[in-house]
Amino acid sequence: MESDPTSSPKDDRNSFSSSNQDIELRTMLNSTVNLDLETYCSSSIENVSLNNPKYIESNNDSSTSSNNNKPKNQVRSLSQENSPFNKYNPSVDELSEYNPILFNDSKISSEETQMIINDISKSLRESDSESLNTSLELHEFNDGNSEIIFGNDGAFISNNNSPNRQIYPEVLEETSEKEILIEVIPVLIFCIFGSIAAGYIFNRIRTLKSFTDIPGLYMMVPMLLNLKGNIETNLATRLATLANTGYFAIKIRRDAEIKASLTLMLLQALIVSITTGILVALLVPVIALDDTVPSHMSWKSQSLILVFTSILSTLVGSTVIGVLATTIVLVCLRFGVDSDNVSAPIVASFGDMLTLALISMFSSFALIVPEIIIFIVVILFFVSGVILYRYASNQPLIVPYLYQGYGPLIYAFVTSSVSGVLLEKYIPSYSMLAGLSPIFNGSGGNVSTIFASRLSTSLHAGNVRPSKQSKTFMLLLLANFPVQVLFILFCSIFIFAKIKGWPIILFSISYVTASTLHVSVLLFVGSISAKIVWKHKKDPDFYVNPIISGTCDMLGTMLLVLVFAISVNKNVVEVP
Description:
This is SLC41A/MgtE integral membrane domain-containing protein. Its main location: membrane. It is found in: Membrane. Belongs to the SLC41A transporter family. This protein is mainly alpha-helical. It has three domains: 9-151, no CATH class; 218-400, Tetracycline Repressor, domain 2 (Orthogonal Bundle); 404-576, Tetracycline Repressor, domain 2. It has helices spanning 9-17, 37-42, 92-98, 110-126, 177-205, 209-213, 216-244, 251-288, 299-335, 343-367, 371-392, 406-426, 433-461, 466-494, 502-535, 544-566, and strands at residues 33-34, 56-57, 74-75, 138-142, 147-151. The strands form two sheets. It has a three-stranded antiparallel sheet, with helices on one face. A two-stranded antiparallel sheet has the order 2-3. A hairpin with a 4-residue loop joins strand 4 and strand 5 (147-151). Helix 8 packs antiparallel against helix 9, helix 13 (433-461) packs parallel to helix 15 and helix 15 (502-535) runs antiparallel to helix 16 (544-566). The termini are far apart.
């Protein structure tokens, strides 16, 4: 885009950056990359002197594409050097095929380039210097046909042909203490009542004919809630990270990232659902040994319905939750709300309710459908899984994460199973343990998930400071306290109404104290695991949530049993 010689430089700059005057570059240095694809592919980048060459790697080997003999120069995503976003470096040809509008033959004039540099420098000088981990480094590559500006804290490719193009991604300003509390506390309260609703739904569906005829559904419910819930929470935190680090600033990049994230989640959901269904089906004979009234259905029929129910409820539920998570993040971005504080807890809470409803619906439906129809549907899903995997393995934005995060999912599954064993052992002694455990564990998990999501965003943005993490730690502990007190008051009025005096006081104090300890440990676990994962160049969004979830269930159940044990007597936890 050539400048109008009759206009001043100031007017030119305002023509493309006036809409961004309120954006403070606090976590990312932003730039514009404009490429003539043919010129770039044929140019020798090896001869270009860059003080910070980590952003471009040249691969002038003998490999050539099928269409031309030009070397494929490897282009690295211009974010933090150790970011997992940079693990896979697609070639220019791959990027242009995947997202062709990012590469165009328009150019930036030298005058406009200097305006961009001046504008970025001014914004950085005016911003809080503590918010930047690194100093300003700008590098310019100009071969006469294209110009590239590199910043060491990140950059973005923008489309010059757009009349309202954005030079900078919109990075949300650092949230104040008051804003964090205002955003977090209502979400935590909403999620507690979501957990209560999930428990109510589960108590209702336990009497369905499908659960009576197929006891394996009892085992499948907690497994799916855990594994499916972690996958959906991973999606929510990943989308929040992408939004808060500027990847959603440009519409075409935003759409590509959302599409890739949803595709990856559906693939993982399909893998998890098939694995869960088959595993529970194999355990049906073992489950039948403890049945006082044996099921009249054969093992083959039960297994087929279990796999069918697992796949369908997971895929339908994950699709709905994926749309919900995307909507929440985009709405938060639109209204200036930090999606790290909102998306993951809501997704987890609503996901549990939806999964329980879908399991009951599809299992009941399977009882009235001919087995041959169920078998055909299951086979079609297996084939769809293979097709989806082949598609995902060819997408540059999915490949780096295709095999990430399964280890923590296994950890979460094992530790949650330990929690289930503890519940089975102590529920006969403490009748309300079954009702309070999902709420106690869920609220602790929601608080720690918010912390992990915020920390992941900070790591990707290169803006991790001990003072900031300590502040977030204390604020989330503070946010948890009134939520737990409110819940105890609710229980005292509607559940423990006939219990007066010291017993209920002791139980309430013990409950709130245990909740505070629970959240504190989970916050430490989230902080340590996120930094360890990041150090090994993995994306925390795929690892930390399952680790927190598994630790949360096991530790929370232990603490809740302890709360009941130290209460004055067992009558405290009996339903009046």
